[in-house]
Amino acid sequence: MKHLHTFALIEAVARSGSMRKAAEDMNLTASALNRRIRGFEAEFGSPIFERIPGGVRLNPAGEMLLHHYRMSKSDLARVQSHVADLTGERRGHVRIACSQALLPYFLPEQIARYRAAHPGVTFTVTVRDRAQAEQELASYASDLALVFEPVYLVDFEVLHLIPQRVHAVLRKDHPLAAKPELRLWECLDSPSVAPNAKYGVRHLLDFAARKLGRTLNPVLETESFELIRHYVLHEQAIGFQIPIGLRAPDDGSLVFRPLAERDVATGSLILGQLRGRTLPVASARFAMQLAAALHED
Amino acid sequence: MKHLHTFALIEAVARSGSMRKAAEDMNLTASALNRRIRGFEAEFGSPIFERIPGGVRLNPAGEMLLHHYRMSKSDLARVQSHVADLTGERRGHVRIACSQALLPYFLPEQIARYRAAHPGVTFTVTVRDRAQAEQELASYASDLALVFEPVYLVDFEVLHLIPQRVHAVLRKDHPLAAKPELRLWECLDSPSVAPNAKYGVRHLLDFAARKLGRTLNPVLETESFELIRHYVLHEQAIGFQIPIGLRAPDDGSLVFRPLAERDVATGSLILGQLRGRTLPVASARFAMQLAAALHED
DNA sequence: CTGCCCGTTGCGAAAAATGCACCGCATCTG
DNA sequence: CAGATGCGGTGCATTTTTCGCAACGGGCAG
Q1: Which among B99, B129, B205, B266 counts the fewest CB atoms within 10 Å?
Q2: Is the pLDDT of residue A199 over 70?
Q3: What is the pTM of this model?
Q4: Measured between alpha carbons, how far is B42 from A25 in angstroms, rounded to an integer?
Q5: Under a CB-based contact definition with an 8 Å cutoff, are residues A80 and A86 in contact?
Q6: Domain B90-163+269-296 has CATH 3.40.190.10
Q7: With respect to CATH, is domain A2-65 assigned 1.10.10.10?
Q8: Fold of B166-265
């Protein structure tokens, strides 16, 4: 939308902290950009950037204005999506922030399914830890978030919730693989491979271990869930993940065992949006599909 | 704000139902306006006007778009007002829709008081009956509504409420003027002067009369509360109003007597806004002042 | 100091918006 | 029935706005 272009420029300047850099990003000369900003400030009645040596920075007025812009833009997108919906074919774009656990199986299947029914809809998937995911929503950068054990629930509206128990990921010849359910203390005695503290699985494990007066000392700590799954094939160690991101390989080389519920609390995988926001049609429908799919699992 | 000018044009076209008329209103030629509309429709991806013989009319897409514009514009005004507030002196504009009863004494006093403290704030007062007042809020044409006995309470958020009993307005030599409180049946036997059915006072009276199996048959039915007050000076009749719009004249020519509570239900004078909306600073502060003043009465 | 990068400004060129005249069409009118 | 009227829409010259280029002054690091 052309009439919001000045705001888009403002956002670019705010992001890069420099008019010249922003001008380059937006395919403009610095002089033109500068004049647009100054012109807007004059019209708006107050500066929105504070000029600091080495660049510019948003002042409080600018922060509020930028928030207005994001809200306004997102609402316009909603209207457009709604209109496209009632003119017949469904088009639109769905932006979703999610945990890594959804990447290998769940999300690709769901997106493919939705696109099979509505080829006009496109997707953006951003991988974020649970704290970042909520900020994505708050800044209108994503429509939906699908995260395990969100942190701050302010401004976060739960659309659907399913419980997920923490599972151990083991090589099939691991001594503990024989048991149908593992106790936490058993795991603490073996070498472990765990995600870092930003992730919900780790948070639940740390919390549970502290209750036992023990700590989790992983031999490998990483941000990559994929690395965890592959590493346990090479060393006799225990990985930890949630079942939605796990599927037994054909060769049976890996097995998954739940941790006893009385040791480690069951976590929640939560589908949510920004509180009070009305989503574009495509996003709302996709959220409904996700909720239904989660319900089946 | 310049970037919303196209929307303002769209609104003008929607209002007048004709591009040529709207062009005149907005100081443009019809051709320029036409191109802006068509250009916007192309960019938006869908027509927003339906072309009918003799002019144009908004289609559903246009309705939604216009609603977005009004919301967006009002939110920008809120941001601007907020910024002006934090830069020091308070400026802004308060738009209020109210019942006639507030016009003679209450509102002018309150506005003057507020302006004495904040000379930078200006006001628009629109007189609306109780149904129209809520539509004013819904279309973002007013920030606040102060009405007696609102009709539909959806999307209407009550900020403050005070009870108001219906009062009879009598000339001092009226036979009923001697009594401290009047019964409804006494009034029905005298000639009466009443507002029409759009007003809350009349609604309460009609409802009460029906309970008695009687009807109110006013000799003069009008939209003007002022006319009612002045007419009873000329004919020995009973007028009906609420006390906030009444003040005994110095010469004692008029007296006001409440109707018995067991005959006519006590109505509510309600200060409200559009549900969920965050008002500009000036409007929010003025609403607080109004609420406090109502509380004292 | 020198070089560098920053925001900012003057000025001519390019682009966008506007005004004017006019078209085709439907409706109203005598 | 024909002419007049008022509507949305379009081609073209003109005006207004915006942009790109070059240059200026000011902080800052080496």
Answers
A1: B266
A2: yes
A3: 0.80
A4: 26
A5: no
A6: yes
A7: yes
A8: D-Maltodextrin-Binding Protein; domain 2 (3.40.190)
